[in-house]
Amino acid sequence: MGKLQQFHTAISCSFPSLLTGLLYVWPSYTLGLYTASDTVLLTAPMADLESSLLGSLPPLGAMFGTVIVGWVISRFGRQKGSTLLALPFVLSWVMIDLSSSSISILVARFIGGIGCGSVLVYSPIFISEVAEESIRGTLTSVPIAMYCLGVQLSYILGWVLTYRYILWVNLACSILAVALIMTVTESPVYLLRQNREEEARLAISHYRSESSTSKVVLEELSRLKQQITPAVELIEMDSDDNIQSEEAEKEKLNMENHTKAVKARMSSFKLLFTSPSSRRGFMIVSLALSLQVMIGMVAVQVYAKQIFSQAAPSLSSHLCSVVFALVIFFGSVVSLVAADRFGRKFLLISSSISVALCLVAMGVFLQTSIVSPWVTALLILVYCFFFMYGAGSVPYVLVAECFVPEVQSLASILLMEWVWLLNFFIIGVFPFMIKYFGIHGSFYVFAFFAILNSLVGLFLLPETKGLTNEQIQEALLRRKK
Questions:
Q1: Rounded to whole angstroms, how far apart are CA atoms 443 and 449?
Q2: Do 348 and 390 contact (CB within 8 A), yes or no?
Q3: Per-residue DSSP letter, 187
Q4: What is its main location (predicted)?
Q5: Phi, psi of 380, deg, nearest 5
Q6: Region class of 371: left (phi > 0), else alpha (psi between -120 and 50), else beta
Q7: pLDDT of 305-357, one tens digit each?
Q8: Which end of the chain is more exposed for a tag (fewer CB within 10 A), N or C?
Q9: Which helix (H) or strand (E) element contains residue 467?
Q10: What tens digit of pLDDT does each residue of 356-396 get?
Q11: Rounded Cα–Cα distance for residues 411 and 428 (Å)
C-alpha cells in the first residue's frame, strides 16, 4: 500500500510532463491554420518570424521556469510549489482559447514554457525524496514516460479533433494536473528541513503505510535527519566564519531571513563544487546529459519526416507521426520497467551501443542507397526505441539519485539550464552539419557521441540501483579511487 502512495505521487507530480508533450507537439498541426491566408482563427495570418516563434518560445520560457523553480519549491514546499508551477499550463491554454491575436498566442506559449522547464526539476526531486530504493529507478523514469505519452496523445488529438476541441482537451488536462498535485502529501525531507519533525514523521507514515510510531517509520526518520543534519551544520559553520565582528552579528540578526537565504545559497554552491562526491556526481550526470543531447535525437526527429515521406508517401503524415510517437513511448515504458531490474549501467551502455549501430547503419544506407527507403525509415523507429529505453531516460534518473538533498535543487537547475542551451545549440547547428557533412556524415558524428556515452557508462558511472543516498555518495567516491 505504501508503494501505491509513492506511485500516486510520482504520477501526480509528473503529470505536467504529459502537458509538456502536448504543448510542444501542438504547433506541428496548428501552424498551418495560423499561417493560411484565409485563416479565421486570427485577425491576420502569422508572419514568418511569428510562425518561427510559435515553436521556439516554449524553450525560452522553460529556461525562465528552470531559474525560478528552486526558489518556489524551497519557499512553498514540494507539493504547493509544484501546484503553483503547474498553473502556467492552465493560463497558457486559456489565453490561446480566448485570443485571436498572434502576439497574445506567442506570450501564452512563453508562459506555458515556464511550466515545461520547471517540471524537469521539481518532479525528480519530489520523487527521489519519497521513493523507496527498490522502486526509485522506476518512479524517477515516470516523468519521461509521461512526456512521451503527451507527445503520443497530442498527435492523436491533431489527427481526430478540430482546433477548438484540441484546446479544450489541453485545458482540461492542465486543470487535472493541478488537481492531482493538490492530492499528494508533502515530502518528509522538505518538512524536516523546515524543522517540522512531527509532520515529517506523519508523511513518512503515509508513504510507507505504517503506523507513525512503527520501527520502519522511526528508522526512516532517523536516517533522513542524519542525511540532512551535516549539510545544515556546514551552513551554520560557514555563516559563523563569515562573521567578522559584533556589528556584523547584529546586522545578521536584524536581517535574519535575507541573510539565511543568501548563506544557504552560498553553502549549496560550495557544497556542490567542493564536496568530492557531489562534484563527481555533477561531472558524471552532466556528461551523460550532454552526450544524450549530442546523440542527436532532436535533429533526427527533424529529418525523420522527410524520410517517412520518401519511404511511405501513400500513408498519412498523421499516421506516421502517431507511429513515431508510439515507438518513443514504448521505449520509455521499457525503461520504466527495466531501470530497477537491470540497473542504470546496463541500460545506458546497451542503449548507447545500439544507438551507435543504428546511426552508422542509417548513415551508410543514406550514403549508398543500397536499400529501399522504407528500411531506413524502419531503422529510425528502432533508433528511437533504443534511445528512449536507456540513453534518453537514465540521465534523468541520475539527476534524482546522485546528489545529497542540500544540493539537489541547485544541481538540477544548473543541469536543466545546460540541457536547454545544448538543445538550442544542436538544433541550430544541425543545418550546417548537413551542409558540410551531409545527412549521412551527421549521423556518423552522432554515432561517435553515442560511443562516448557508452564509455561514460562503462568507466565512470557507478551502479546506483537499490542504493540509499549515502551509499550512492560512497559509490561515487569509490569509483573515483
A1: 10
A2: yes
A3: P
A4: membrane
A5: -65, -40
A6: beta
A7: 666 766 666 667 677 778 888 898 899 888 888 888 898 999 999 999 999 99
A8: C
A9: none
A10: 999 999 899 988 989 887 888 888 889 989 999 899 989 98
A11: 26
